[in-house]
Amino acid sequence: MRRICVIVTARPSYARVKTALEAMRDHPAIDLQIVVAASALLDRYGRVVDVIRKDGFEVAAEVYSVLEGGAVAQSVRSVGIGLIELASVLSRLEPDAVVTIADRYETIANAIAASFMNLPLVHIQGGEFTGSIDNKVRHAITKLADVHLVASELARHRVVSMGEDPRYVINTGCPSVDLAAEVARDPGLDFDPFERYTGTGPSFDLSGGYVVVLQHPVTTEHDDAFEQARISLDAVRALGKPVFWFWPNVDAGSDGTSKALRMFREREGDRPFHFFKNMLPQDFLRLIVNSDCLIGNSSVGIRESAFLGVPVVNIGTRQNGRERGPNVADVAHDVDAIRAAATRQIAHGRYPASHIYGDGRAGVRIAEELARVELTIEKRDFLVPAGAALGLVEREGL
Amino acid sequence: MRRICVIVTARPSYARVKTALEAMRDHPAIDLQIVVAASALLDRYGRVVDVIRKDGFEVAAEVYSVLEGGAVAQSVRSVGIGLIELASVLSRLEPDAVVTIADRYETIANAIAASFMNLPLVHIQGGEFTGSIDNKVRHAITKLADVHLVASELARHRVVSMGEDPRYVINTGCPSVDLAAEVARDPGLDFDPFERYTGTGPSFDLSGGYVVVLQHPVTTEHDDAFEQARISLDAVRALGKPVFWFWPNVDAGSDGTSKALRMFREREGDRPFHFFKNMLPQDFLRLIVNSDCLIGNSSVGIRESAFLGVPVVNIGTRQNGRERGPNVADVAHDVDAIRAAATRQIAHGRYPASHIYGDGRAGVRIAEELARVELTIEKRDFLVPAGAALGLVEREGL
Amino acid sequence: MRRICVIVTARPSYARVKTALEAMRDHPAIDLQIVVAASALLDRYGRVVDVIRKDGFEVAAEVYSVLEGGAVAQSVRSVGIGLIELASVLSRLEPDAVVTIADRYETIANAIAASFMNLPLVHIQGGEFTGSIDNKVRHAITKLADVHLVASELARHRVVSMGEDPRYVINTGCPSVDLAAEVARDPGLDFDPFERYTGTGPSFDLSGGYVVVLQHPVTTEHDDAFEQARISLDAVRALGKPVFWFWPNVDAGSDGTSKALRMFREREGDRPFHFFKNMLPQDFLRLIVNSDCLIGNSSVGIRESAFLGVPVVNIGTRQNGRERGPNVADVAHDVDAIRAAATRQIAHGRYPASHIYGDGRAGVRIAEELARVELTIEKRDFLVPAGAALGLVEREGL
Amino acid sequence: MRRICVIVTARPSYARVKTALEAMRDHPAIDLQIVVAASALLDRYGRVVDVIRKDGFEVAAEVYSVLEGGAVAQSVRSVGIGLIELASVLSRLEPDAVVTIADRYETIANAIAASFMNLPLVHIQGGEFTGSIDNKVRHAITKLADVHLVASELARHRVVSMGEDPRYVINTGCPSVDLAAEVARDPGLDFDPFERYTGTGPSFDLSGGYVVVLQHPVTTEHDDAFEQARISLDAVRALGKPVFWFWPNVDAGSDGTSKALRMFREREGDRPFHFFKNMLPQDFLRLIVNSDCLIGNSSVGIRESAFLGVPVVNIGTRQNGRERGPNVADVAHDVDAIRAAATRQIAHGRYPASHIYGDGRAGVRIAEELARVELTIEKRDFLVPAGAALGLVEREGL
């Protein structure tokens, strides 16, 4: 029986691994310990911890660590607080391995806590590429991690390129696609979004189509967050379609994005823009698979939408370097460009499914790997090519 | 005028960059800000901060972060506290770049604080290889860093292999060798160690030769620290030579090492073993260049001693994967093996100088690079080989 | 020249000591160091730090410490972070005395940091009484403080009763009344609130009168915060007057209060309720002196309003135990009671001025005391009555 | 069944409440949760946590919080870290009341964590008086606490004088005296100190008598700690008796005291001075009841020694303001005065027992009170005398 501790720090991370958590909970050789941390505990971001409990998971510990204020120094302090708390939590839970997901800034705390405490670290979704600090965080976690469960062949190639031992870099596909596969089997919009999620702004009729927007601030461009949100608001307004708009993750810059949304609401509160904080992942996927177009910079546009064939307008640099299916149109932060691309995508309609991010069984594969893989903290280093003429004598451990 | 903030966290880090700090202080285009943190502030480790001030440097901030106790969870909490403090320090100092040195666990805080605050991060001595958690820390810092000033060609090769932009990976040589070069020009033992440093244990006559021991706990083997220190004590005692022994760095396991030393002192306090906490770097180099043999696992045995030609017995895994000159004999933690190797090295005497870690001008080169190199936080990623048939369209920023 | 460090942690604290800060800044024997901390730095609470700078004060340090989430455990963690930061700030500023104001939870960090670092601690506004945790905090700070500058004779009596040396308990009056005195000399509403402060909600005509509401959550009743805010909203709506409503301080429970206000806004956004985050203190006093009634549980209703003669409806337990002028009507959290009391107060109109909280020169007196009073950390303890037959021999220091 | 959480932060605190902990563990209506924190976890101070476990108690949580270095700023940071950790620990344990003991600096964290989290706070040993920062800490905790279990009638009088509700101030006697009463029933020295505790320094024959020294640094005089320890060493050496000397608690100044002891040991290591870190409380009491004199500034000299009749030389201000039995001679930090007083006390021999600190049943009384007393966080405030002509209308809660 292996104690596997999975640390969930944000709404999208949970969505991304939910099927893996279910498979772990049900696996006879795994004792699952879920730690919920950071923005996953906050009202402002929909308290995903409540969703997790409602989904039938037990929460082994909560780690509050988010300091108020959008300034970048706060992300540093929040990681610091997360470390202090995780030291106690991991000392108490004594897991056999710690799992951290993706690349949000606060996840570096998970990786440091585990590796410094000599606990084998498993990283889900390494080897991706994005256009912000997430990139540095993700690759740094790769170098701290002992096992890598990646989401695509390109990701595997990239992790191995960084000198990781190929035996510990395993392409499981992305568990977020598992949910998409489930939704795709019966894709009707089987709920009323206004009723189930309230939100703010006017209700509207969905029968004439609608678009969905999900745009996060980009950490290295956080001073532009307000302006970038304003541009997207202008472009989307010009489409003349009803809109479901989602608030951003907590992050350096999220105050800027939120401010733009609030200003819009106050000035143009009668337009058919409805704002949600949060939605159950399956409901969100149903919402976008029935939409005319998904607009913004969320990874959902790249991954789940590839499988679902949803037309996507991907804005700016946040998803740079990720493999795309044919369903994605990339544009810059420009009112006209966004509007034109969205118009074309709406006209095109749904695309055929792409399996570049998995076939819908990633969750089960992740649980199996976690039950099977050798758990060690002694990593071999593959940086120096075998036989390189560098005057280096072979030694144990190298 | 660039504000360059260098964070010094430990005695050996300072020794390693002292000539670079002098060159920065004297450089007309650099405004040097020295932050002293972690064990560099503690009595137990010789308060290097006092040495730094005595050497004529101004200290811009002190960051106390070391929690008491040798358990691994404490290193996690100490990084947490370091982050909270550094967020404030860097907000106040507003540097144009932050420099972190080498790979001790607490330096990950420097790297996170700088990169999360969108400050260009310069890493000195990336691309090395050692046999412990330092390895993970060092490579993780490489992935967070924007500029890499490495100490050897092998190190440069390794950093580039991890996907770093070759234009920002510069082999300056190791500044620790600068001091060695200076000492080598006039290598006499021009001071009385007992008088200048007091220490504890009996004094003895140096004219018949002596050995020097410097052995640190290995983080991933911290439970063995006590036993490893005991083995070395037994082996060195058997040589029948007077001994200068240095206390270890603060680290997971240092309590074990220190305990073994204290027990030895209490039981065999009349033997010619003299214990020092600390020594000025130039004095330490003079001490070893005049010794019969340097024993332990310090990087000084690998780097400075290569230039100086000091016979070295390197014990255990801590220096695994580092290039060696001909002066190094590697042995395991074994009383007989250590004793035999030391006997051979004492018989051999000094070796010719090797330049694998630099020619003695690294400090000046580092200052020049810091004044010259483009400072940016937008790193290009070289992980995907150009032209790779991976179905990935070239995009800006990739 | 004495370095006096004043730590401001919240909007109302600044309002309360502004004239004292001005008098310190202008005093030839005082070198004023202002540290801004906690909610005084947050957008959500109007970033008072910006007001402080705009008022011409230099800010010596900023201390971010508020963790997100309304749960009581967060206030504990926030004090913890405040302490870690203040240790560094006070080490750097090296003040001759530290001044902390009133009784908000986070101010205990100021008191601990100063007293543990052997810095004389001055407490402004000890000896008050309120109905929540503030009471415990305030009296605990009294026992940590060396000098007490209190706001009324009753307050002085209470501090001395706790065993403090009467020579160090000085009634200066409350500096918040200084501003009230200034406003009272020329009480016209000389600005347009909608224009100067924007806020949210409809604009309205002021000529027919209006009421002002300022209601904070009560820490020991934080689960009731939502319901208490809802009751006040119902009662005030029933008055049929236009309303200026202010958002609450950050505190355990503030999420509940804020939620009630947001729900009201969304459902009844067309009523003449205008919401402000914050206002310059003098503007706020002008606003209330021209209002028909001030409703809620703010200390402004007790202090400044006593001098100004504003009719006040004070709701609930938050101001329990504070002296009142004749202008205050106390009511419970009850829709009818609030409505009835407000109707009577509106009918009554302004009251004559009361000087129970000072005559308008408290700021100058505080500065003079800080320049004059002996600064020592060796407190005499007056708990054992002189001559008490307790078998205790008189000893030095007792 | 009440969950009572007792937080133990140091060796002497545990000694002081051990019989109370036993009585709580055995009480049918109490579910005891022991949290061990701060120096009670450190090797340097004898890891009392191991003793606690060996005594058969379960430890519900460990809170590491001590930062390295003797500077006063570290005590502030350590309280900060303690708060962050305690917030999580108390959230998890959900006690019905929290018990904190005495007045060491780090215990303010216990009091803040409990009171801010709306948990009833019980303070053991309020109302004492000492000559340092402990005084401020203790009285501040009194004002945060809801229930006070004090050790003497004078202490009760003092707590009530500070405005606490007399119904919640209960004189249970001091549980440290329970152990003394047990030892007094059969006071022979039934173990060999050298054999059981090792320690450092020469062994000696006990049959000719010996003295015991226990001297802590005084926080407000921490710069004098080194000199004060040196004076005591000189005075005790002059007595010509063998000496058992105990290392001090971790505290601001303990580095100074420790340095003086280490210097003495290195220079005069052959004298009959034997140094111990720590001893089981009952063994320590046996050691002193069989000694010729107890010298220093420990509270053991005041309390347990009163019951046991041990002749005591109490040095300096640390125990100022505590009631004394006839067995105590007070002296200043002066070599001659200490020597002279010790000579007189040695000549006098044992004193008759005094019950000022209890009759030996305090532990049982404390457990009974904790099972019985009303647990509330709504404290009545007795600062304003009933019927005082202060124009204050009686209100609920006042």
In short, what is this structure?
With 398 residues, chain A is of the alpha/beta class. Chain A is built from 14 helices and 13 strands. In chain A, helix 6 links the parallel strand 6 and strand 7.
Indicate the topology.
Four copies of one chain form a homotetramer.
Chain A (H helix, E strand, L loop, with lengths): L1 E7 L2 H16 L3 E8 L10 H7 L4 E5 L8 H22 L3 E5 L5 H10 L4 E4 L8 H12 L2 E4 L2 H9 L7 E3 L3 H10 L8 H5 L13 E4 L10 H13 L5 E4 L7 H14 L5 E4 L4 H9 L3 E4 L7 H5 L3 E4 L12 E4 L3 H14 L13 H11 L26
Parallel strand pairs in A: 1-2, 1-4, 2-3, 4-5, 5-6, 6-7, 8-9, 8-11, 9-10, 11-12, 12-13
State the total count of DSSP E strands of chain A: 13
User: Mean pLDDT of chain A, rounded to whole units?
Assistant: 91
- Outline the biggest β-sheet of chain A: 7 strands, parallel
Discrete helix count of chain A: 14
Structural notes for this entry:
4 copies of one chain form a homotetramer. With 398 residues, chain A is α/β, with parallel strands linked by helices. Chain A is built from 14 helices and 13 strands. Chain A has helices at residues 11-26, 48-54, 72-93, 107-116, 133-144, 153-161, 175-184, 193-197, 225-237, 254-267, 281-289, 304-308, 335-348, 362-372, and strands at residues 2-8, 30-37, 59-63, 97-101, 121-124, 147-150, 169-171, 211-214, 243-246, 273-276, 293-296, 312-315, 328-331. In chain A, the strands form 2 sheets. The first copy, chain A, has a 7-stranded parallel beta sheet with strand order 3-2-1-4-5-6-7, with helices on both faces. The longest helix of chain A has 22 residues, at 72-93. Chain A starts with a strand and ends in a 26-residue tail after the last helix. The relative contact order of chain A is 0.14. Chains in contact: A-B, A-C, A-D, B-C, B-D, C-D. At the A-B interface, helix 3, helix 4, helix 5 and helix 6 of A face helix 3, helix 4, helix 5 and helix 6 of B.
